[in-house]
Amino acid sequence: MSERAKGLTRQQMCDRLAMEFEDGWIVNLGVGIPTLCSNFDFGDKLIVFHSENGVIGYGPLAAPGREDLHLVNAGGQHVTLRPGAAVVHHADSFAMIRGGRIDVTVLGAYEVAENGDFANWKMAGQKGGGIGGAMDLAACARHVFVAMEHQTRDGRPRLVERCAIPVTAKGVVNLVVTNLGLFAPTRDGMVLKEIAPGVTVDEITAATGCRLLIPREVPPVRMVR
Amino acid sequence: MKSKVFASFDEAVHDIPDGATIGFGGFAVVGMPVNLYAALSRQGARNLTCVSNSARGGATLPGDAPDMGWLIKNGQVKKAICAFTAPTRASQRFIFSEYYEKGLIEAELVPQGTLAERMRAAGAGIPAFYTPAAVGTELALGRETRRFGDREYLLEHALPLDYAFIRAYQADAFGNLRYRRSQRNFNPVMAMAARVVIVEVEEEILPVGAIDPDDVHTPGVFVHRLVKIPPPPEGWWPQRPADLNAGGRR
């Protein structure tokens, strides 16, 4: 296998999703690849990061040696607070989620189906699982975005017709970015919206396990200048 | 009134009976009752049902620091109720998983927001509620759902606790608590849900009235026993990852 998967880096994947965030949005980032969305330069837009453990308005990671041991994000990383931040307890944090206050959640996934189902809490053959806040977020955030590698480590597609492993929520995913491109699940199949530089449509088709709807012109993935 | 301030963790947990349901607060070590885990492992109550976000600690404590794993290795745990019952990365191993995979302990996996709300409901006198989380998933199989408007919801029952073990930043002698930053997490809802609430406190326990009423996060009405955490090495305190790696103890 090559040192790095073909196409976009993980930061470029997250930058592309972060471009979709609108001014004033409350954003919840899942553990893993999605945390990179917070590195994006939002310019004049006000983006408020919500963490499931009740931290609203956190900022960049704390510098080593300057960590506040009372303050972590959902991934247990020591973050900082931005002016205007607030802290609530877990029941209030999830009341914000269920109550529809989260504009977008960006989550990692093992599989996304062409109809918007996705799976991210239980690997095949595993006993138990790691749900965390993913089921609450997936069911209740206004938008659900997924950032994941296009294929598994052993080369199987993650974009699939139907999820083979237990789902986190049904029909909720609006947008998926992988190292190969940007995709949108729809009733008719998975739409290829943008293609990563240096990647061909044939390569994407070969690496994908569901119906792909491919417009005549597929623009390149929008990148940070 | 009898004082709520106890001199030691051992005294504060001396009467925990076999078969108790205990909530352990904390999220990624922050607000985790590390010292009470250690005391309960010495006390030895068995057949416990342990409720916690996750069955393990995190990067600001040594790998062998007290967490649910201590109780599990000690044969004290019958069942865990958590939002994580497996590692999220294949490379991770927890004591919990070894016992769970062998069928030596039971586990109930609950979405995190549902877990918090089940305890909040117990504390608020609400026996059950409907939530959209987990609808259409394996967790909803064979369970009661109901449509309200155009959406399906899953029935969830309140989760009352016999005991809550929590950690707070400040307490006054009546048990009014303040948490600091993300230390709040599950601690206030577990305190509401439990009949007996035992708190490990970071700062010296303050005289009654020293915390402004507007700044009380958990009112003393919910709190029964307070223990000041001694300085290290007697007490367990999280450390910066760099200091831990440099070999500092506790």
In DSSP terms (H or I, runs of 4 or more residues), the helix count of chain A works out at 4
End-to-end Cα distance of chain B: 36 Å
Oligomer state equals heterodimer
Largest sheet of chain A: 10 strands, mixed
Average pLDDT for all residues of chain A: 95
Q: What percent of residues of chain B adopt helix (DSSP H or I)?
A: 10-25%
Count of DSSP helices of chain B? 7
Q: Radius of gyration of chain B, Cα only, in angstroms?
A: 18 Å
Largest β sheet strand count, sense and barrel closure of chain B: 7 strands, parallel
Major sheet of chain B: order of its strands?
Answer: 4-3-2-1-8-11-12
Average pLDDT reading of chain B = 95
Uncertain parts of chain A = none
In N-to-C order, the SSE pattern of chain A is HEEEEHEEEHEEEEEHE
Fraction of residues of chain A in helices?
10-25%
How large a portion of the residues of chain A is in β-strands, by DSSP E? 25-35%
Tertiary shape of chain B: globular
Structural class of chain B: alpha/beta
Spatially, the strands of the biggest sheet of chain A line up as 4-3-2-1-5-8-10-11-12-13
- Which protein chains are joined by the largest interface, and how many residues does each one contribute? A-B, 47 and 55 residues
